[in-house]
Amino acid sequence: MAVRILTLVGSLRAGSHNRRLAEAAVQIAPEHVEVGLYDGLDTVPFYNEDIDAEGSVPAAATKLREAAGEADAVLLVSPEYNGTIPAVLKNAIDWLSRPYGAGALSGKPVAVVGTAFGQYGGVWAQDEARKAVKIAGADVAEDLTLSIPGSVVRFAELHPVDDPEVTEKLTVVIEGLAARATATATV
Ligand SMILES: Cc1cc2nc3c(=O)[nH]c(=O)nc-3n(C[C@H](O)[C@H](O)[C@H](O)COP(=O)(O)O)c2cc1C
Fold this sequence. Notes:
InterPro entries: Flavoprotein-like_sf (IPR029039), FMN_Rdtase-like_dom (IPR005025), NAD(P)H-dep_reductase (IPR050712). This is FMN reductase. GO terms for molecular function: FMN binding; oxidoreductase activity. It comes from Lentzea aerocolonigenes. Residues 4-148 form the NADPH-dependent FMN reductase-like domain. By secondary structure, the protein is α/β, with parallel strands linked by helices. It has a single domain (3-185), classed as Rossmann fold (3-Layer(aba) Sandwich), CATH 3.40.50. It is built from six helices and five strands, in the order βαβαβαβαβαα. It has a five-stranded parallel beta sheet with strand order 2-1-3-4-5, with helices on both faces. The structure holds flavin mononucleotide. Flavin mononucleotide is lined by residues 11, 13, 16-18, 79-83, 116-118, 122, 151-152.
């Protein structure tokens, strides 16, 4: 059976370069890996413990938790906003971090990649995302990184799937994450 990787994107805009990077991951995934692109992070309300209670959890949050729970691994694809994680992605991580100790990310292999306009490719945001999911209990693949600088210029005309340097490095991340998920499943 294929290893299922769920991709969560930290940008909501239609023309998002990170969304395109996630689309590239879907397209280049090797045969034994199925990469899915999650839609609907914009409909998940801000995390609030008052509504994270039996009978009150918003449907969009339940859908997100179920999707992450069913995946063998999660790939976060994010730009950097003001030196850190975009709120939409942090909100998703917060929902996935609860119930405490038993959230959908618990023990789940997670890798973080992304592209941003700055010269470091959003590495602060991606490092922060790693920190947050680690605290949420994920099995973070610290060695599987990809931070692509100059998003707005580099991908102005070029889809990441048509950028050989990107697809080569992204393939390493996907294969490494899938291998980690397989190893976790067989422990
Ligand atoms: C609110 C906001 C804050 C940003 N802050 C940063 C930043 O701190 N570092 C950076 O490299 N780029 C920053 N950028 C530029 C983004 O990295 C760039 O627009 C990126 O392509 C956005 O991702 P997307 O194309 O997936 O929407 C910021 C953009 C916005 C809209």
